[in-house]
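Usage

Read records sequentially. Each one opens with the input sequence:
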Amino acid sequence: MPLDPSIKSVLVIGSGPIVIGQACEFDYSGTQACRVLRAEGIRVILVNSNPATIMTDPEFADATYIEPITSEIIEKIIALEKPDAVLATLGGQTALNAAIALFEGGILDKYGVKLIGADIPAIQRGENRELFRGIVEKVGGESAKSVICHTMDEIFAAVVQLNYPVVVRPSFTMGGLGSGIAFNEEELNQIAGAGLRHSPTSEVLLEESILGWKEYELEVMRDHKDNVVIVCTIENLDPMGTHTGDSITVAPAMTLTDVEYQKLRDLSIEIIREVGVATGGCNIQFAVNPENGRIIVIEMNPRVSRSSALASKATGFPIAKIATKLAIGYTLDEIQNDITKTTPASFEPTLDYVVVKVPRFAFEKFADADPRLTTTMKSVGEAMAIGRSFSEALMKALRSLERKEAIFSWPQISEQEKANLLVSMKIPTEYRLQQVQKAMWAGASIEDVFAATKIDPWYLRQIQIINEQAFALTQLGELTAEKLREAKGNGFSDNQIATLRGLQEEDIRRERHHLGIRPVYKTVDTCAAEFEAFTPYHYSSYEEESEVKPRTTPAVIILGSGPNRIGQGIEFDYSCVHASFVLREAGFETIMVNCNPETVSTDYDTSNRLYFEPLTLEDVIEVVHAESLAGPVLGVITQLGGQTPLGLAAGLKAAGITILGTSPDAINLAEERGAFGNILKEQGLTAPEFGMAASQLEALTIAQRIGYPVLVRPSFVLGGRGMEIVYDDAALGGFITRATDITPDHPVLVDRFLDSAIEIDVDALFDGHELFLGGVMEHIEEAGIHSGDSACVLPSMTVTPAQIVEIRQATEKIARGVDVRGLINIQFAIAENVLYVLEANPRASRTVPFVSKATGVALAKAAARIAVGSTIAELRSESLLPASGDGVAKGISVKEAVLPWNRFRRSDGRGVDAVLGPEMRSTGEVMGISPTFGESYAKSQIAAFGPLPKSGTVFISLADKDKESGIQAALGLQECGFRILATEGTAGFLNKHGVTCVTVRKNSEGTGPMGERTIVEIINSGDIDLVINTPVGRGTRQDGWAIRTASVQRSIPIITTTAGFSAAVEGIRFLQSNSLSIKSLQKWLG
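and closes with the structure output:
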């Protein structure tokens, strides 16, 4: 039966900000859902707090609400928009939990709205571990032995029958948050205690450990006529004990016998029927004991999941799109396969290639975090590669990560090192596979490695084959065409071959091209080439026949941003997708090159052609070559995907490839300190004083000349890595001792740090003649906090009209001096009424999506058009830009960063420090938009999981330099009726200035003689509603650290800057006297 006629409008619930465990795969699934619904003529209403996604662009829904995803807000939206149905299976755990809350609060019944995709009983059967266990038993499957507990006493009683190690899993959390494996009583106390706190129902499940078993996932879809298809089987290379999001995964499964596969298949079909997911996709996870083949069902997600995005990209079967069609009444046999155009969606995909996904981590951002991989997901992104063999796909995936350490290498390894490797690989960490490869290169046997890691011997044999190939390459004698072709077929890069032969990468490439050995491009077609494929979705392989079709329209190649990471996330994918859309409208063909399976850019219908390839110089040169043979190529756009494509621009230009937009030389000009300093001098602009030091003595001399505080950093890092702000000689000396590799080649930069300056972020467009100022954002946190972690507001609140004019002139001078074509992002600081230029990046920045939504001007689209030669004047006449003037903010928009502190623990189980600094650590962002600053800030805090309290007790502890600026805010809290606690120094100061506060003991002072509790004990007992703690220099950090980690562990909102403190007071004032307003983005932009 086709479309359900009772559904005229649908409310889609998005997944909110990007956090570890729930990343942009839900932007991809949500975007597909909105497209499908609108194509069917259904009115789409969307709620999602994340401005960085394509899905919250005004053209993807009829009414887009960038609002916090809470029952209170969703009820207001339902009352206003009156949708017929709610779709909650495409927004991850956030949307499912929101749907359950709407149901339990009686809101769905009150407004007569039905839930489509999965009903509440089905969600509960899938998510509630006890109900699910009953279902598994009913269909003849087996679950791990387990006990459900609600208190620590029950937990200790349960362990007696299960024995150590036990797995702890809290209910209703995502990405394994709060879960872990306990090997003894002390660990159990720590993990289970945290688990009870993280579970919204204070419930945890203890289960027998199945560490070391093989782990599989099946993606299953079912329609209301009970047709069921298995879309994809995914095998985890890492055995049980590592969260599947942190494992290397392979599709199709490689080591299942046919009998085992049929068993998993039958179980999956029985389970999805019994759970009652009537329309849509779900993901079921299994563990198989390698010794006897015993199968255990681990869990299911009754929704589209992270693995669904991977399965969609791996098979070309668009799970989210089809799930949406099923939810509105279609059946699988009525839906056409987009790729073959002849087969229905009830045909199961068949793969004639291998897909490997590898996770990307960010441990370097959390120096004190425990690096072990456990059942709590810690990776921030992933890369996927496709090859004709496992080794080819694996080697491509590893180089897609853009991490030197991830790529296999073949050094000399001593016996002692080999023995060490065999010990260290027992504990799963980020580079375990590399340890395995090196140990096997040094002669470790498959049996030794299997005993240490429990990685299936089939995979170990594949790694052995790669090592044998490497050994063959080191042998003397010429590199024959046959040898070279074999190595390329196994996935070796030119660089790896060059290293093994003791040559340069260019030598190998020249020789390879001379011999005519180049990759051909195969197609992902869902059917192993049984039917013709109509969508050009390609991957490279060293075989005979190319499947790239000729074309006549000029093409533009867009380089994506590779795997998500902290500092380069979905915001850059957003700009690439915008470019593809606008250039297709302008009559060009667009070709996307990217290797991130989670994003909209790698959807097969975003661009005319998609190449799923690593973003390395070699791989991109080959794609450009293949496309140049197919038809005219205008050039390559590198300025939209963040640092990854920018890093390739110079190499591509040297290879004779046209770079569209800002030239690589101009980019270099802005990145190189000396050259950029000269531009500023010529234009009469001011930058903070700085110097470069090649020794400790030089650094101290420079610091004394400039004056403390200074910002110090190694001169060759990005994303704020390794930066610190120091206030005296001793601290500077300490930094330099830690940054040991300070040499004339690797100097340290010492900048004057503008203490308590206002930081400004500007996004602008320049076409060589005219400047368009997109937006002037003011950071809420003062200078010194990385712009990616700082909350910011548009329009700026304290900048005067005269200063705006000055900022505009400075922006134009810099854009002209650097010779930008397209986007430029500049960071300024205003201190004592002087405008300083901090840095300029001639590329799309991470604030582009936020500015575009706040002002209604699609900056990335305009930048892509400028790159192919349009002028700002032409874009104004086409209404892509406003007819006159600059970008104007509609309403007041606040962007807030979302930080992943709760995911990381130190090895001793204590939390990592939640203090902001010059190094970026946030994974995602949210936006609040409303008529006043107080309300927008309050909304941004709710959406970023730190909602401000309306009443209760606040604890304040300010560093000496912050005490003055904290008085007004503290008085404000007192007027709002809060009870204020403070430690001795802060309490004395505040009392003197008219703020009544109670003195409490510091953590370092310990419990008092009469049993007076310390501040950390008070926080742990849940008696505090908001914590304000500004950190002191490095010395007395311990007290503050204990306070901040205790707050994070108890999910109490914590603010670590005085500017954030003042903003919070404005937010609280608003919340006390008003209820939150809602308004769709379409109405704001009018």
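Summary fields computed downstream for this record:
- The first helix runs from residue 25 to 39.
- The chain has a mean pLDDT of 87.
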